[in-house]
Amino acid sequence: MKVLVIGQGGREHALVWKLAQSESVSQVFCAPGNAGTQLDGTNVAISVSDIPKMVAFAKEEAIQLAIVGPEVPLVAGMSDALRAAGISVFGPSKAAAELEGSKSFAKQMMWKANVPTAKSETFNNFEAAEAYLEEREEQPLVIKADGLAAGKGVLICDTKQEALDAIKSLMKIREFGDAGRTVIIEEKLIGQEVSILAIVSGSTIVPLETSQDHKAAYDGDKGPNTGGMGAYSPAPLVTPELMDEIIEKILVPMVNVMKIEDRPFNGVLYAGLMITNQGPKVLEFNVRFGDPEAQPVLMRLKTDLAQLLLAAAEERLDEIDDLEWDERPAVCVVMASEGYPEEYKKGRVIRGLGEAAELADTKVFHAGTTMKDDQVVTDGGRVLGVTAIGESISQAKLKAYQAVKCIRWDGAWCRKDISDKAR
């Protein structure tokens, strides 16, 4: 069958790479793709925001499965348009994607489902938010932009002044545009973060292997939040008993409440959790594969991904056998452009990709890259997701960083401590 992956990041490259390994797949298209998806599939120059053109291409090529990678087209209704054209789609409807498109909506659903999460208040008026903060005692808080902000609209504030500055930057200065029109002010949860991704179709929930993302820019979880500077899988923190609790108290209630609200979920339900002393609590929900979590998780998946996602799209997920996994852990290190997550330059030539590709048990997933004059150049803040699998977390980490050392461009940098929390 012909498959279309929509998006252009590291997650989409990982999807294209894994789908191309399926015996049932004849061709994988990626729209618009990047320099890496061009190697493992066929790029199509269609923007993720051009829904009519995407639908026309899918019909013209008789696409049998479309997979919508990023949150922006999901929130805009890409899945609905493709389904209306008779194409099997893996990805939630616009109504269901609001779980990620609006953090205040997600909070409402969590309260309705009795899902554990941080205490919070929502404001769409700056003066009201400011007055609320002024009246509170000094305590660490998290300020969140309600809308989509490419993983960067979460500001962790240890003092009242930092919180006041955060609401000003979101609501007054509009650092993230309309995403900050409404803000959520919530208590700061203490613990370790884990990412739980599950394939959902109807009432069937198939959890994937666990992973842990590294959101902060710099070593030791310092610096501003980013879209993710690396990830590893599995996360030893999540024991089988804890996973059962997460399924019972978080995933099942959320899937059920979405059905009750007439927003049935089909796609990846991603729960970003903090494992606190009181148990797992939800930080946020996403409605697609995580990036960079998809890279190490998909590297470990042995089950045919195309058949798995097609079964979900066709609401046959309950017919799928238990997923098979490589027992070995995998580590993904994100290489970024100088200046990220703030301003950065594009168009810098990347060297050493061939050298890195020769290393065993390693795959360099492209995120912010493109081709220019037959050379791979930078085209984003997070440029590459260098991913390796090994007999242990430390061996996988060593292999990933050996590949990182092969790759160079002006201003390239990465965190040096990805996966250290697993020890």
From TrEMBL:
<dbReference type="InterPro" id="IPR016185">
    <property type="entry name" value="PreATP-grasp_dom_sf"/>
</dbReference>
<dbReference type="GO" id="GO:0009113">
    <property type="term" value="P:purine nucleobase biosynthetic process"/>
</dbReference>
<dbReference type="InterPro" id="IPR037123">
    <property type="entry name" value="PRibGlycinamide_synth_C_sf"/>
</dbReference>
<keyword id="KW-0067">ATP-binding</keyword>
<dbReference type="GO" id="GO:0004637">
    <property type="term" value="F:phosphoribosylamine-glycine ligase activity"/>
</dbReference>
<dbReference type="GO" id="GO:0005524">
    <property type="term" value="F:ATP binding"/>
</dbReference>
<keyword id="KW-0436">Ligase</keyword>
<dbReference type="Pfam" id="PF02844">
    <property type="entry name" value="GARS_N"/>
</dbReference>
<dbReference type="GO" id="GO:0006189">
    <property type="term" value="P:'de novo' IMP biosynthetic process"/>
</dbReference>
<protein>
    <recommendedName>
        <fullName>Phosphoribosylamine--glycine ligase</fullName>
        <ecNumber>6.3.4.13</ecNumber>
    </recommendedName>
</protein>
<keyword id="KW-0658">Purine biosynthesis</keyword>
<dbReference type="InterPro" id="IPR013815">
    <property type="entry name" value="ATP_grasp_subdomain_1"/>
</dbReference>
<feature type="domain" description="ATP-grasp">
    <location>
        <begin position="107"/>
        <end position="314"/>
    </location>
</feature>
<dbReference type="InterPro" id="IPR000115">
    <property type="entry name" value="PRibGlycinamide_synth"/>
</dbReference>
<keyword id="KW-0547">Nucleotide-binding</keyword>
<dbReference type="InterPro" id="IPR020562">
    <property type="entry name" value="PRibGlycinamide_synth_N"/>
</dbReference>
<dbReference type="InterPro" id="IPR020561">
    <property type="entry name" value="PRibGlycinamid_synth_ATP-grasp"/>
</dbReference>
<dbReference type="InterPro" id="IPR020560">
    <property type="entry name" value="PRibGlycinamide_synth_C-dom"/>
</dbReference>
<keyword id="KW-0479">Metal-binding</keyword>
<dbReference type="InterPro" id="IPR020559">
    <property type="entry name" value="PRibGlycinamide_synth_CS"/>
</dbReference>
<comment type="similarity">
    <text>Belongs to the GARS family.</text>
</comment>
<dbReference type="Pfam" id="PF02843">
    <property type="entry name" value="GARS_C"/>
</dbReference>
<dbReference type="InterPro" id="IPR011761">
    <property type="entry name" value="ATP-grasp"/>
</dbReference>
<dbReference type="GO" id="GO:0046872">
    <property type="term" value="F:metal ion binding"/>
</dbReference>
<dbReference type="Pfam" id="PF01071">
    <property type="entry name" value="GARS_A"/>
</dbReference>
<dbReference type="InterPro" id="IPR011054">
    <property type="entry name" value="Rudment_hybrid_motif"/>
</dbReference>
<keyword id="KW-0464">Manganese</keyword>
<comment type="pathway">
    <text>Purine metabolism; IMP biosynthesis via de novo pathway; N(1)-(5-phospho-D-ribosyl)glycinamide from 5-phospho-alpha-D-ribose 1-diphosphate: step 2/2.</text>
</comment>
